[in-house]
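Page 47, continued from p. 46.
Same chain as before, 228 aa.
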Amino acid sequence: MTGLEKGKALFEKQEFEGAIKELTEFLSKNNNNADALYTRAISYRKTDEFEKSIQDFTTILERLPNEPTLLCDRGISHFHNKDIPSAMKDMNKAVEIDPENPYRYSSRAYIRSRSDIEGAMADYEKAIELDPKDEISLNNLGLLHENAGRMKAAKKNYKKANTIIGYDPDKRQEEINKTDTTNNNKQVEEPETTDNNLSLGKAILSVFTTKSVRNEYFQFVKGIFKKK
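Result:
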């Protein structure tokens, strides 16, 4: 097993510090390997080493300046590094290059929501237009509507999101009440927290930890060398 393979295996196990060590050793002899640089960049972000993450993404972008996945990921690292202007610059370019990808809009919406609520809503709406079954964007749009006091719109989006994931809050409450009656004085566990009960920041952050992100990572790694 090569150092790259070891590093990626550790990455998949979420052992990011170990992945960084293996990938750094591999890159000492293969300094232009985009796959290793990309995986290490994500690992650095996972360990809060944002400057190093940005540098690895930038190194690959020097060779692939119009790769939207790289721009989007560097934008996320810029955001965590509290450099909002640089984050938005990367996100805007990613949207411009890849305008039919809903994840580009939902990613930008997360960052825009800190200072431009209306713009963030527009991005989530575009993401939903492109992918009507995007329950994360529906939920997060609902959170923004609720935060703005637009409860009718918020409930509408929450309902759509709940339908997609198969969650029925009324039915769940009936089950809880039934259990409570049956067990009398026994303590009943509270229902699992649904996304619409989470804080704005915590719930919206999930856009970066969803299946779409994992899929994008693998698609990027598979196709990156075809774009040289």
